[in-house]
Amino acid sequence: METLREKYAENTRRALLATGLRLFTERDYASVSAEELVRTAGLTRGALYHHFGGKPGLFEAVFEELERQATKRIRVAITPVPDPRGRAYRAVDAFLDVCAEHAYRHIVLQQGPIALGWQRWRELDQLHLGGLVLDIVNAALNAGRLRPHPANLVAIALYGALTELSITVAETEEPDQAQMQAADLIRNLIDGVVTDSGPPSA
Fold this sequence. Notes:
Blueprint: H1 4-26, H2 34-41, H3 45-52, H4 55-78, H5 84-99, H6 102-116, H7 118-142, H8 151-171, H9 175-193
C-alpha cells in the first residue's frame, strides 16, 4: 500500500515533469533556469535536485517521457496491420506525425542534441525508437519478406534515415511539404529492402 510519503514524492515528481514539459516546450533549454522551474512548480530547489539532480536531469526525464509516448503511439498504430511492408509504412506515417507536434519537435529534435549532447541524445533515441525499427525489420525477416541484407544493418540504415529526415523536417520553414516528401522517400527506401511476397529475392 502506497504511503503518504511515497504519494507526496510521486506528486512532486509529476509536478516537476509537467512544469519541465511546459517550459522546455515554450522556450529553449538554455533560457529556462532551475530557479524558474521550481518557482513555477511551487516547489523547492531541493526537490528538483532530489528527484532529478538538477535541470539537466529533469530535461532528460521529460525527453525520455516524450520518447516513450511516441514509441507507444507508433506501436499502437502498427498493431492492426499484419503485412510487413504495410506495418513499416504505418510506422513511418505515425512517427512523422509525432515529429510534427510542437513539444516533440522542440524538445526532442531541436533542443535535445543541444541539452543532452549528441552522443547521449543518440543513445536515448536509439533506446526507444531504434528498438522499434529493429522489431519492424525483424517482422519482415520472419515473414520471408526481407531482401538478403543483415536485419540489424537494415534497421540501422532506416533508423538513420528517419533520424536525419526528422531533424531536417523540424528545421524547415515548410514542415507539411517536407513531411510528405520525407514519407515518400522513406517508403521508397522500404520498398528497396522489403519484397512484395515470398522468400527474399536477390
